[in-house]
Write a structure and sequence with these properties.
Layout lengths: L15 H18 L2 E2 L5 E3 H9 L3 H6 L1 E4 L5 E4 L4 H10 L2 H4 L3 E10 L11 E10 L4 H17 L5 E7 L6 H15 L5 H9 L10 H7 L11 H16 L5 E2 L11 E9 L6 E8 L3 H4 L7 E7 H10 L12 E5 L2 H16 L4 E3 L6 H10 L4 E5 L1 H5 L2 E6 L4 E6 L3 H11 L2
Parallel strand pairs: 1-5, 7-8, 12-13, 12-14
Antiparallel strand pairs: 2-4, 3-4, 5-6, 6-11, 7-9, 9-10, 10-11, 14-15, 15-16
The protein binds zinc ion (2 copies).
The site of one zinc ion has 7 residues, from helix 8.
Length: about 425
């Protein structure tokens, strides 16, 4: 017996309707906002993530699935979706047709992390990207897509954390201020953070080490050192959120675990998973398109872990109804009935009725038991007696009623079933 690799997850047939429900909501909502799907490869050149996500981030340093193919190319299973989307946007010259571009993606991402509830080494993400817009309205639009999504899924305990981490102009001042603070506490920081002090001091704010967290709770805030333009942008974002009635809280410690963010960063935090847990997040990344070889174009984006969203829905009693089960079981008793039943089942399915039929010649009792097990609301019984009159008995199992129907009128059977629960 070979088991699934540690940290991976099988989505079983009995759960997949939740995924279809979530994906359908995503596709409806993104269409309303004018976003179109992009599908990129699951693996990319390792260099894309080293440059895109950034050396010194936990993702690049500790969490990537990197391997050499048979031609000794270094490839990496994508740990996130933004770098790939930007790569494709540049590679296909999408910006040449129209700089402004709105994309979304749904797909698996791979990170070698400690597995925990709703967090897997292969996990699905939904993300969106808006290129070519520098206005704060763009940040607000992206945040509003996500907050609409959570609202439509029935998630009520989701809070938006918002911060600004400045632009390339004011980032060095933010770093210097932070370094000054870190220098005084260097002895007490963990080994990783002492390394980050030189390389990328903002990353220290992200450290999961409890002692580092305690120290950093007293650190100066990036938001106090941002330049006037960044300040104005941040005020614009807050104004836009207020205009749409979207609740948020400022979190000066929020930096997000990726290097590419500029100005706005945000995180959606659910209180529905017990402890506070990020269900999704994103921000602005005005330098990434250029850094990956494209033109100087601003961008803002977001992503959410889909397992976490589904888990949160279950925890908040927002589990969707399963509308994928079969509704009707056709039960044939005897050889002659079987042929008529098989033909009728074909017609009922052709008319769009979710219908099933068993070929194992089980007893009526066994087949009714199966109907119950499959949560089907109707059974159509065709016995030797009925076949002579070209008739069948339609049982409404929920209402505990039954009626005689014609074997030769599949349309009428569908009408009876649709009518019963209308
Ligand atoms: Zn700035
Ligand atoms: Zn640390």
């Amino acid at each position: 017996m070979i088991n699934k690799p540690k940290g991976t997850n099988d989505i079983l047939p009995e759960e997949s309707y939740r995924w279809h429900f979530l994906e359908a909501r995503i596709r409806d909502l993104t269409a309303c906002y004018g976003y179109h799907e992009i599908r990129t490869p699951i693996f990319e050149s390792t260099e894309l993530f080293v440059r895109g996500v950034g050396d010194g981030t936990d993702i690049v340093d500790k969490e990537m699935y990197t391997f050499q193919d048979r031609s000794e190319r270094s490839l990496t299973l994508r740990p996130e979706g933004t770098a790939s989307a930007v790569r494709a946007y540049i590679e296909h010259g999408l910006h040449q047709k129209e700089e402004r571009c709105k994309l979304y993606y749904i797909g698996p991402m791979f990170r070698y992390e400690r597995p925990q509830a709703g967090r897997f080494r292969q996990h699905y993400q939904f993300g969106l990207e808006l290129y070519g817009e520098s206005s704060p309205w763009a940040d607000v639009e992206v945040i509003s897509v996500v907050s609409r999504l959570y609202a439509e899924l029935g998630l009520s305990n989701v809070i938006i954390n918002l911060n600004s981490i400045g632009c390339s102009g004011c980032r060095s001042e933010i770093r210097d201020t932070l370094r000054g603070f870190l220098e005084r506490n260097l002895e007490s920081l963990c080994e990783d953070c002492r390394r980050r002090y030189d390389k990328n001091p903002l990353r220290v704010l992200d450290c999961k080490n409890p002692q580092c967290k305690t120290i950093m709770s007293g650190s100066p805030c990036a938001i106090d050192s941002i330049c006037p333009d960044c300040r104005e942008h941040f005020e614009g974002v807050k104004h836009g959120l207020a205009l749409l009635g979207i609740q948020y809280q400022i979190n000066p410690a929020l930096v997000r675990g990726l290097d590419y963010y500029t100005r706005t960063v945000f995180e959606f935090v659910s209180t529905g998973l017990g402890a506070q847990n990020a269900v999704g997040g994103g921000g602005r990344y005005d330098n990434l398109v250029h850094e990956l070889g494209g033109p100087r174009l601003p961008a803002v984006g977001f992503s959410t872990g889909m397992e976490r969203v589904i888990l949160t829905m279950q925890n908040e009693n927002a589990d969707p109804q399963n509308t994928e089960n079969t509704e009707l079981r056709v039960i044939a008793l005897g050889k002659e009935a079987e042929e008529a039943a098989f033909r009728l089942t074909y017609d009922l399915r052709r008319l769009g009725l979710r219908t099933d039929m068993d070929f194992r010649n089980k007893s009526l009792k066994a087949q009714l038991r199966l109907t119950d097990k499959m949560n089907e609301h109707f059974a159509l019984i065709i016995g030797e007696a009925e076949i002579k009159e070209r008739a069948a008995v339609l049982k409404d199992l929920a209402a505990r009623t039954e009626s005689k129907v014609s074997l030769d009128n599949a349309e009428q059977i569908v009408k009876n079933i649709r009518g019963a629960h209308a």
